[in-house]
């Protein structure tokens, strides 16, 4: 192992001794990229020897003459983040470097940066930290705002990162505030690339888990889009249908009666959810059926409650202003939705 440490120190010394725009820096970055990919045991020695801040510094500003070096630096950081996440995350300024890399014009560099953020977010403790870095969130969102321009792989890596961000409940309102909802639904409606709809709906199902999502979904007709996705006749995949049901359920759990009312206003919502709960259309997992069944119970309870309330008003036997809450205890549900569904 000492041999690997010596090799790592030598490479990092070469990196530190060369200007970013120089060929020597590019060669050292390429070598670090290659070694960190081919030999996982080199990742920790490279990180411990100080490679991370040097690689990160190469990403802060675009330089057309150093585009290849920046691509190699971003790929090397991604490789290091797989085995040395703590060393990467603890490097001062690394999130600023990744935010800058996400906006670089080289698609592969931006993709590597998105994948690195995703890798770091696999650690639960890092989610609130990265979630407080608005420049990172904004750059990730911009990646999938470029419909038809951003490569599929970059969009999927950005969606994966946003998904993990949204697993931390306090990040959801931030995502809504920063405008995540419109581009997410735009991906569902307008982007026909394989897997993108499934990944976008998985993210939507998480973002739905905050009260702020109710109004945000209303502004883009989100509930109607999700109800339509539940319908097997639209040709949506089983995974997309399940994610749509999970999103509606999480919206109900976070938005209360307002969200229930929005769903009930969508024509045929209850019958479509029932079909999903019964497995109509095939490709429906047991978990998907369970989510749909939970949502169906809420909708049925809503319909029954409103019917009783209406009868009370007609017969003037009650002057109560509103029925009690239609929701079950939040402990009955899990706000997480289909973490394993993102590829």
Automatic annotation (TrEMBL):
Q: Where is this region: Disordered?
A: 307-343
Q: Which residues form a coiled coil?
A: none
Official protein name in the record: U-box domain-containing protein
Q: Which PANTHER family match?
A: ARM REPEAT SUPERFAMILY PROTEIN (PTHR23315:SF238), U BOX DOMAIN-CONTAINING (PTHR23315)
Q: Which Pfam families does the entry link to?
A: ARM_PUB (PF25598)
Q: Where is the composition biased (Low complexity)?
A: 325-343
- Report the residue ranges that make up the U-box domain in this protein: 24-302
């Amino acid at each position: 192992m000492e041999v690997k440490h010596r090799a790592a120190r030598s490479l990092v010394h070469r990196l530190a001794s060369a200007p970013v725009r120089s060929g020597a820096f590019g060669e050292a970055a390429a070598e670090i990229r290659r070694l960190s990919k081919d030999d996982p045991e080199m990742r920790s020695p490279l990180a411990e020897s100080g490679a991370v801040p040097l690689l990160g510094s190469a990403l802060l500003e675009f330089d057309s003459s150093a585009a290849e070096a920046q691509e190699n630096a971003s790929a090397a950081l991604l490789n290091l983040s797989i085995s040395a996440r703590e060393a990467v995350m603890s490097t001062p300024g690394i999130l600023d470097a990744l935010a800058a890399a996400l906006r670089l014009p080289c698609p592969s560099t931006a993709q590597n940066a998105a994948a690195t953020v995703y890798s770091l977010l696999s650690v639960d403790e890092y989610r609130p930290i990265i979630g407080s870095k608005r420049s990172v969130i904004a750059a990730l969102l911009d990646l999938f705002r470029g419909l038809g321009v951003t490569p599929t792989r970059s969009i999927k890596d950005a969606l994966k990162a946003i998904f993990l961000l949204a697993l931390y409940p306090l990040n959801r309102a931030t995502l809504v505030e920063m405008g995540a909802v419109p581009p997410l639904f735009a991906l569902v409606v307008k982007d026909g690339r394989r897997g993108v709809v499934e990944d976008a709906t998985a993210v939507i199902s998480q973002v739905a888990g905050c009260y702020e999502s109710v109004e945000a979904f209303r502004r883009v007709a989100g509930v109607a889009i999700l109800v339509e996705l539940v319908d097997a006749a639209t040709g949506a995949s089983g995974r997309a249908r399940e994610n749509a049901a999970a999103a509606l359920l999480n919206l109900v759990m976070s938005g209360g009666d307002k969200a229930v009312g929005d769903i009930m206003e969508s024509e045929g919502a209850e019958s479509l959810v029932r079909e999903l709960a019964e497995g109509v259309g095939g490709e429906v997992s047991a978990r998907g059926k369970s989510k749909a069944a939970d949502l169906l119970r809420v909708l049925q309870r809503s319909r029954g409650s409103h019917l009783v309330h209406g009868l009370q008003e007609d017969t003037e036997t009650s002057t109560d202003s509103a029925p009690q809450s239609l929701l079950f205890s939040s402990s009955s549900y899990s706000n997480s939705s289909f973490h394993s569904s993102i590829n």
